[in-house]
Amino acid sequence: MSMTLSEVCELVGGELRGDGALVVERLAALDQADEGSLVFAFDPAAVVQAEASGAGSAVVRTGCQCALPHIVVPDVRKAQSVLLRAFQPPRPAPTGVHPTAVLGEGVVVGSDPSIAPYAVIGAGTVLGARVVIGAHTVIGERCAVGDDTILKPHVTLYDGVRVGARCTIDSGAVVGADGYGFTHDGGQHQLVPQIGGVVIEDECEIGANTCIDRATLGCTRIGAGTKIDNLVMVAHNVRTGRHCLLISQVGVAGSTTLGNGVVLAGQVGVADHLDIGDGVMVGAQSGVAKSAAPGQRLMGTPALPGIEFHRMMAALTRLPDMMREARRAEREARAAAGQESGG
Amino acid sequence: MSMTLSEVCELVGGELRGDGALVVERLAALDQADEGSLVFAFDPAAVVQAEASGAGSAVVRTGCQCALPHIVVPDVRKAQSVLLRAFQPPRPAPTGVHPTAVLGEGVVVGSDPSIAPYAVIGAGTVLGARVVIGAHTVIGERCAVGDDTILKPHVTLYDGVRVGARCTIDSGAVVGADGYGFTHDGGQHQLVPQIGGVVIEDECEIGANTCIDRATLGCTRIGAGTKIDNLVMVAHNVRTGRHCLLISQVGVAGSTTLGNGVVLAGQVGVADHLDIGDGVMVGAQSGVAKSAAPGQRLMGTPALPGIEFHRMMAALTRLPDMMREARRAEREARAAAGQESGG
Amino acid sequence: MSMTLSEVCELVGGELRGDGALVVERLAALDQADEGSLVFAFDPAAVVQAEASGAGSAVVRTGCQCALPHIVVPDVRKAQSVLLRAFQPPRPAPTGVHPTAVLGEGVVVGSDPSIAPYAVIGAGTVLGARVVIGAHTVIGERCAVGDDTILKPHVTLYDGVRVGARCTIDSGAVVGADGYGFTHDGGQHQLVPQIGGVVIEDECEIGANTCIDRATLGCTRIGAGTKIDNLVMVAHNVRTGRHCLLISQVGVAGSTTLGNGVVLAGQVGVADHLDIGDGVMVGAQSGVAKSAAPGQRLMGTPALPGIEFHRMMAALTRLPDMMREARRAEREARAAAGQESGG
User: Fold this and answer.
1) What is the pLDDT of residues C39-88, one digit of tens each?
2) ipTM rounded to 2 decimals
3) How far is CA C152 from CA A140, B144, B213, C139, C177, in A?
4) What residues of C are labeled active site?
5) Distance between CA B46 and CA C235 in Å, rounded?
6) Residue B337: band (very low, low, confident or very high) from pLDDT cuts 50, 70, 90
7) Helix, strand or coil for residue A84?
8) Average pLDDT, chain A
9) Which has the minimum average pLDDT: A58-62, C51-55, C316-320?
10) Fewer beta carbons within 10 angstroms: which end of chain A, N or C?
11) Chain B 114-133, CB below 8 Å of chain C: which residues?
12) DSSP-derived secondary structure letter, B174
């Protein structure tokens, strides 16, 4: 993969400064650049680093000067995304089914599969076309995996899990383990059998070591286009809308529903049986204990509308000084009263 | 598995309304029901959904009317648990030892085993009767696994771990990794060897991707009947009592002891070397920094008795208005003083 | 492994009380001791337990009396660390390459390897001398693993990950998954290809089920001697300095830089694109939202300097009483004013 600086410029819709015939062989970070590299300078300080990096060319922000052949764009990050897509290595050719893969009875494998060593696929599972199954990935019985979906190494799907098309599931993710539901009897806990399923719709990403539990009855459901980061917990019977973002270490408790386009920042917890409206955004580490109307911005534990949270934090920050001041005033008042009564 | 509505009614101890000879073939969620399905309506709104669901019958709460043949019970959730147990699929027949499983020297396998493809079991390990070992599960040397215990695919037990009878360990759980103990010398950290073990007593559940570290000396111990959810961290030398509940993403630091029946809600952290009494319950996301007497209800970070926490949060919520009011009163007092002195 | 009590005494630099010829066969916890055992008593109560434990000898703190043959030291924990190192079992002899391991084209294996059953190593990967690769561990293509490094069972390294010498990576860790970077277009999210790498320098420990994502461009980097606990999330393009400690369930968001010797306690979250100075220590469950100067001690969410945090918490604790008092004073003032105006 390589292109000329002119071609790069056309792709990102920028303004060319310098030799358009220059060949760009790769994109690079500022500390790993060589003559064939194009680097990205997100601010004026980075332009100086870019000039000293050994890179052959750069993308810089409107208004920045640069001594290298460069392209000027209003939004360097957007240009970077476009070029990362252009320069990404092509998807490898299908590798077929490795002889050590164990396929149960009645497994259906679509066209052009890539099934890596030691994959284990349970009876009755159906794989779509061009599916990639990583080494050691275990798929239970009666599962379905859609076209072009990639399961990285060491993924586990329990029985009956359904994954849509064009999804990626990262290593260590566990989909379909029993939900954490117990009845309590005389101080003891007995598991309630979890006989429902999990449905992951099309174009979802499920991060490494993330867990999505199966439903008690019915399905735990991840809406199309939802992107879930690493180490996230999605409990039984949760339903997310389309295009949600669940950032690392988030936990969503049982039977809670997220609308479309909900964003939960890192380490957020959402309690069980809540209804979180479309477009709700929750700040990092917040704890959501009540249902939320569409479009709310929430922060804190228990989570409040952002404006209330900031007002409360501002007051809390002033509190120690205010208390000291109040005690001083009280002491003065007492002293004055003492003088009066003693005078 | 199927039974008549009369049989279902007898099982849950409810009141039958409609045709007791109706055959119930399965339990279903409201959005997946057909004629052979029995559904559960937890509230009046759900009764309407049930009637429209296509289900053949329903379980409803005392006081609810329903157009379908139905059973009336005071506690729908309890009835659901009973029926989920009755309708759960029978445990599959033992599958024996798959030829690709690798068993070390001196491994003892009990009667009627199910050992799936690519399981690896270290030398000297002893497995009880009817044990189920999932695909790719790795068991170290000199481990013990009790009768009827199930290790799902991709579980890892390090050397010397002992798991009791009738336990379930979910995929991705790692039991017996070295505790996080270091000595610090001139800004560098050197691992303290962790030569103790882990004991999981009978009837425990260990969730997916949960980690239980081995002890420095002695044992990390999970008490009988304790249920641990997904992505939980149990550090070295922790001891839990019997019948504890540790909900998802909880972390318990080194050498802390939990009494019997302790409940830690989601994302709770408990500091090291603490003593948490029997029956203590800690609210979600709380951080426990001090030992707690039996029966306490704790909330917040640092965790306080629930009543103090709620009182503090109520005060905090009123704080911004109180401060604004105080500033207004001060301005008025100044203005009044100014008028007096200027008058 | 065994030594006399005199030899033990010399090793820890303590004072011997009793028979120096006594043979110490093992170190033990107080509840697992026998005649051949040496136990550790960290406080006077533990000395009583030690005497009743059946142990043959003990290490006790300066000033404690003990009826067993014993060694007196000023710091029992330090003595324990020294002895744990002395008594730890020797590293097992290399086991070679198991015939079920799958090695891709051009894999280079150093001298004296131990590669366990079902390990899968991608094309072009280079392993140093005396490397230990656990059962089922999957290493991608073009990776490098340094001398004497141990990857436990079920580790996953994606393509191009570089691990230094003398590291340990625990089970379930996932290194090199795609960073969580998306562009947002009309409410939809599209993955930004992550074509950078991960570098783990020498003498690092990476805990069980921890995730370290690959960089967008350049490298995510873990500095030499850094110890990362279980279930930690390190996002794309994060860089840690040397000798950092990241305790269980910590999350560090994208592009944040940690200096040398930074300590993040359990469940801490650090926001993206921050610069955390050398030696910064952050208390458990804190949320760091701003960059921090070297040496700061931070606590709370959002994190404050420890002294400010404690001052704020102290004020907050007094707040409910202060408010009640203020309301009482106001009522009295009103009552007094009413009497006056009515009088």
Assistant:
1) 999 999 999 999 999 999 999 999 999 999 999 999 999 999 999 999 98
2) 0.94
3) 25, 20, 14, 12, 18
4) 236
5) 43
6) confident
7) helix
8) 95
9) C316-320
10) C
11) 118, 120
12) E
Which of A81, A225, A301 comes nearest C188 by C-beta?
A225
Q: Does C326 touch chain B (CB under 8 A)?
A: yes
A193 touching B (Cβ < 8 Å): yes
Is residue C341 scored above 70 in pLDDT?
no
| pLDDT tens figures, C129-150 | 999 999 999 999 999 999 999 9
Query: Predicted confidence band at A260 (pLDDT cuts at 50, 70, 90)?
Result: very high
CB contact under 8 A, B218 and C30: yes
User: Which chain C residues contact residue A227 at CB under 8 A?
Assistant: 180, 182, 189, 191
State the pLDDT at residue C340: 65
Six-digit token pair at B37?
Answer: 């399905």
Residues 250 through 289 of chain A touching chain B, CB cutoff 8 Å: 251, 253, 267, 269, 271, 287, 289
**Closest C-alpha to B168, from B183, B187, B153:** B153
User: A136, A155, A174: best mutation site toward chain B, by most B Cβ within 10 Å?
Assistant: A174
pLDDT band at C342 (very low <50, low <70, confident <90, very high): low
Q: Give me the residue label for tokens 């934090």.
A: A313
Contact C248 B253 (CB under 8 A): yes
Q: Which residues contact B139 (CB under 8 A, 6 or more apart)?
A: B119, B120, B121, B122, B125, B133, B145, B151, B157, B161
Shortest distance between the Cα of C241 and any Cα of chain A, in A, equals 16
Are A38 and A59 in contact, with CB atoms under 8 Å apart?
Answer: yes
Closest by CA to B236, choosing from C33, C84, C229, is C229
Q: Is C343's pLDDT higher than 80?
A: no
Our CA angle for C113, C118, C122, nearest 5°, is: 70
Burial of C262 (0-12, 13-18, 19+ CB in 10 A): buried
Phi, psi for residue C145 in degrees, rounded to 5: -130, 125
Helix residue spans in chain A (DSSP H): 5-12, 44-52, 76-87, 306-342
Q: Is the pLDDT of residue B343 over 50?
A: no
pLDDT at B124: 98
Average pLDDT of every residue of chain C: 95
All residues at 6 or more sequence positions from B135 whose CB lies less than 8 Å from its CB, including other chains:
A102, A120, A138, B116, B117, B118, B119, B153, B154
pLDDT score for B340 = 65
Residue B342 is predicted with a pLDDT of 54
What confidence tier does A340 reach under pLDDT thresholds 50, 70, 90?
low
What is the torsional sign of CA A229, A233, A236, A240? negative
Q: Give the mutation candidate from A24, A151, A203, A209 for the C interface (greatest C CB count, under 10 A).
A: A209
- Across the interface, of A192, A218, A253, the residue whose CB is closest to B266 is A253
Cis peptide before A302 (omega within 30 of 0): yes
Q: How many angstroms away from the CA of C100 is the closest CA of chain B? A: 10
Residue B236 designated active-site: yes
Question: Two tokens at C38?
Answer: 């040496």
> Is there a contact between C118 and A136 if contact means CB atoms under 8 Å apart?
yes
Average pLDDT over residues C125-132: 98
Res A342: pLDDT: 54
Burial status of residue C156 (CB atoms within 10 A of its CB: 0-12, 13-18, 19 or more)? buried
**B61 contacts: CB under 8 Å, gap ≥ 6:** B41, B42, B43, B72, B73, B74, B76
Q: Judge whether B49 is closer than 8 Å to chain A, CB to CB.
A: no
Min Cα–Cα distance to chain A from C39, Å:
36
By Cβ distance, the residue of B84, B89, B225 closest to A192 is B84
Mutate to test the interface with A, among C180, C238, C330 (most CBs of A within 10 A): C180
Q: Which residues of B27-58 are buried (b: 16+ CB within 10 A; e: fewer)?
A: bbbbebbeeebbbbbeeeebbebbbebebbbb
Within 8 A of C265 by CB-CB distance, chain A residues are none
